[in-house]
Amino acid sequence: MEVVVKDFDLVRLSSIDYFPLLSLPEDLLINIVESLPLADRTQVRLSCSLLERIVAKADLTLPHTYEIIIKDGLPCTSIFNDHRTMHGNYQVAAYLASRKAIAGRIFLSSVMITNLDHIDQMDHNVIDKFIDGVVFNNLLIAMGASTFDQR
Amino acid sequence: PNVKLVTSDNEEFVVDFRIAKMSVTVSRLMEAMNMSETDDASLLSNSIPLPNVTKAVMARVIEWCEKHKNDEPKEEKENDKRGRTTHVVSDWDKEFLKNDEFGRLCQLMGAANYLEIKGLFNDISQTIANMIHGKKSDEIAEMFNIHCDLTEAEKKEIRKKTAWCED
């Protein structure tokens, strides 16, 4: 019986001695990637197509906590507790768009609207725009340290 | 009591029962073969075949297990707020893993995964992650001998997708 070795398998097999990292099974590579901060993951993604695919897959399984901070009635948004200026709005939009592009949907563990000094000043349209299409477990609206509302 | 482990290249290692039990895989095999700590005859008459581990790698695994055999079970932290799992590699482990060239480190990681020795597996995984940390993509490619097959357009697209996490 003749066994035909496909190009992909040939490359994969021939890489074992020379490219030990790429010869690791995918689940082990994902484990390594999961220990990396997000900025490092981007650099790993840029190093080759195999790692790009693996990191993208690992990122999809990440639980994220998404926090929206309201300042002067507008969301001054942060991701992963990075307190940012309004520039963060653009970054969150880019983040959501990229995850939508990869996953088709976004799953976030919670959306938190916090630091509400004046609830009446909240711009609901902007908030709706941010969380539109986002799948999440909890929406927490907090005033200071205490939870104001939950649904 | 001692347990006999046989590697893929037919080398027999005789290890302490406590060390053998550090591997979930070996524990399960011993259970399946009715080998128990209190039954010397069962330990003497059986050996555990480990077809996915070579002699050289097994020697390193046992060295790591010897050092950690009295450790309390460690609770791993789950994801931190930046979405990554964290594991602290002790100074001894750093020194231990420093001696392995990268290809061997990957073999050791494969063995730790097969043998289900969580502590060793996490140590190696974190060590490789630490090697990557702070490096640019071309430095990562060079370090791991990776040929970058992405086009400039594909790289641009990745940068665009990940711009939000690059401060």
UniProtKB/TrEMBL annotation, chain A:
Domain of life: Eukaryota
Stretches assigned to the F-box domain: 18-69
Matching Pfam families: F-box (PF00646)
The protein's name in its UniProt record: F-box domain-containing protein
Organism field: Pristionchus mayeri
From TrEMBL, chain B:
BP-aspect Gene Ontology terms: ubiquitin-dependent protein catabolic process
UniProt cross-references to Pfam families, sorted A to Z: Skp1, Skp1_POZ
CDD domains with a match to the protein in the record: BTB_POZ_SKP1
Every SKP1 component dimerisation domain range: 118-165
Alphabetic keyword roster: Ubl conjugation pathway
Superkingdom assignment: Eukaryota
InterPro entries associated with the record: SKP1, SKP1-like, SKP1-like_dim_sf, SKP1/BTB/POZ_sf, Skp1_comp_dimer, Skp1_comp_POZ
Keyword field contains Chaperone: no
Stretches assigned to the SKP1 component POZ domain: 2-70
The family this protein is said to belong to: Belongs to the SKP1 family.
Official protein name in the record: Skp1-related protein
